[in-house]
Amino acid sequence: MLIRRERSGDTEAIRAVTAAAFRGAEHSAPPVEPGGDPGETTLISWLRADAAWIPELSLVAVADDKIIGHVVASRAYIDSAPALGIGPVSVDPGQQGEGVGSALMHAVLGAADARGETVVGLLGEPAYYARFGFVPASATAVSSPESEWGDYFQIRTLSDYAGQGGAFKYASPFDRF
Question: Where on the phi/psi map is residue 169: left (φ > 0), alpha (ψ -120 to 50), or beta?
Fold first, then answer.
């Protein structure tokens, strides 16, 4: 398996992997179009068209010349301080449980740290994301965008973190749901 940056020709394969990964998932975003793909597929398109898009933080996992996973981190803020929001993270259902998601998370966190980013946030399963150093935001000085998310909204500090706290704000495409 190879982890690399998304290329211009990867859009449809990323959409297919994301749709497959989130179709039927318990906490998936609703389709934008009735009967359409899960909302996460549309979210990625919206992010690509937004100023928050950071091309070098849209990564794919490739095996046998096929995209089997994708992760994206986009510009977010904690009050006015730059941060990153990770998500969606997608792995082809046939490849789940084989380390693809872990490889993508390690790669995006490493790339973010190498860029000098300070902190990342995500909405996800605490038992899974704790292995990457994420902690519930409620245990930090960062407040969740939505209080009802509870411990599912998590924060991970990076090397250049200087202790900033405040309200976390995802890129504006996240607000369209």
Answer: beta
